[in-house]
Amino acid sequence: MKKIILLIFALSNYAFSQNTSKVEKSIFGIQATLIGVSVNNEMRLTNQISLRSEVGLDGALFWGTRTKGTGFYLIPDLVIEPRWYYNLEKRVSKGKSIKKNSGNFLTPSIVYVPDLFVISSDKSITGVVPRIALIPKWGIKRTIGDHFTYEVGTGIGYVHYLNNYYNKSSDVIFDIHFKIGYTF
After folding, report:
1. I need a surface site. Which of 22, 99, 125, 126 has the fewest CB within 10 A?
2. What does the alpha-carbon distance between residue 12 and residue 21 come to, in Å, rounded to a whole number?
3. End-to-end CA distance of the chain, in Å?
């Protein structure tokens, strides 16, 4: 009888610890970068994997001889990221929060930039080169309080241009991001 009680206790402890180290079922949020803003949703696929979808305006600063000085532009982009949060159990075992998917992650980020419109300080910039990129990335996401988050990530990958503007069809792309956000 003692063995059965110990076995039930051990199994319930195992099951409880497994349930506490899951990614959230669904998270909706808004994030901002230095120049840009996005709306995103992250939904659980497995205990450690979520699917993040994002629609936003990505921005950049420019200066130099091709333009009439310095300025900025904003362009729409769509991002899909299946994220593997690989350290959730370790964070829980150390008493750290995994609220709103706070953890380290790996992702093959897929970014699509269509030529829909451009918001720019330079009126001569009227379009962008449509492209799709695949960027394997490593990142961290942390929650401050109940709703505020920050995220840092970096990666290097491949970009394919959907027209022949650069006289080449593909290139290497480097990505680094820092985002602050609010989750609902």
Report:
1. 126
2. 15
3. 48
Q: Please report the DSSP string for 105-141 in residue order.
A: EEEEEEEEE-SS--EESSTT------EEEEEEEEEEE
Q: Closest Cα partner for 158 from 177, 174, 176, 139?
A: 174
pTM, 2 dp: 0.83
3-state DSSP call for residue 91?
A: helix
Q: DSSP code of 162? A: S
Judge contact between 132 and 160, C-beta under 8 A.
yes
Longest Cα–Cα distance in the chain: 83
55, 82 Cβ separation under 8 angstroms: no
Along the 184 residues of the chain, how does pLDDT read in single tens digits? Answer: 555 444 444 544 444 444 468 999 999 999 999 999 999 999 999 999 999 999 999 998 888 755 567 888 999 999 999 999 999 999 999 999 999 999 999 999 999 999 999 999 888 888 889 999 999 999 999 999 999 999 999 999 999 999 877 788 899 999 999 999 999 9
Tokens of residue 14, six digits:
């195992």
Structure tokens at 3: 């063995």
